[in-house]
Design goal:
Strand 1, helix 1 and strand 2 form a beta-alpha-beta unit. By secondary structure, this protein is an alpha/beta fold. The strands form two sheets. The protein has a seven-stranded mixed β-sheet. A six-stranded parallel β-sheet has the order 2-1-3-4-6-5, sandwiched between helices. The two termini are 24 Å apart. The chain is globular.
Amino acid sequence: MFKVFIDGGAGTTGLRINERLSGRSDIELITLAEEVRKDNEARREALNSADIVFLCLPDAAAKEAVSLIENTKTVVIDTSTAHRTNDSWEYGFPELAGRREKIAASKRIANPGCHASGFVALVEPLVRFGILQKDTMLSCFSLTGYSGGGKKMIADYEADGRSLALDSPAMYANTQQHKHLPEMAKICEIDKLPVFSPIVAPFYCGMQVTVPLFSEQINGNVEDIKNVYRDYYKEGLVKFVENGEDSTFLYANALSGRDDMEITVCGNDDRILLVSRFDNLGKGASGAAIQNMNIIMGVPESTGLDI
């Protein structure tokens, strides 16, 4: 039986991980009493006693937690931004070529960002197979539920008498400095950061990431893109679907509460839309972290997940 510790279990990601793990008989959860939850010595003991640690912390706190780990056998799955572009850490998106085996052998796994997961799933295989060149200038917009903003944003959206402004979608990170951009470029091996417009909307969870393309930007056609996705995503929690559930409307919360991802291709031969849909707390965070844990444990990747 694997011993598992969630450091930062009171946040939205940690709570979802705990929820998914609570019914499993193949792990033992290490927990800390509320009064010592932030005590470094108590955390140090828990971190070093665990076979697998989930870090659900801000970046600085995640780095501090890693510094407390002396047990060379402890596997760390970090859900923060702190290590996603660190070459010493494995990027935890097992559906990408060659990464599943590396995750299984790694002691340090950086869980992907939510927006980045949708972008990487769409772009990485097209760059890998030459449909997109590395110097292609890309753009991306991403709709997310407000749970991605953590407890404070959730409280703001669910407060009585909330601001009328929260009834509408809101663009943010408008200076083009979003924290997911570095991993989006690094993992896809593209030369330039995409123009990225994340949008938070008044629904709890769900995410829809869209990368628009002109036909002049690709080597091939729409069917070539679809064929790449069909062949690439045969294993894991990402699957290609034809035009989603409705060719007229694609709903950003369609996979709310689930831990998998659907990608599809819309548009026409001239103007193309690459779309990924998933739960920002599922395949965009907690579900992906548990998928990586399952790989480490050698059990089916979907164990304990909702797909």
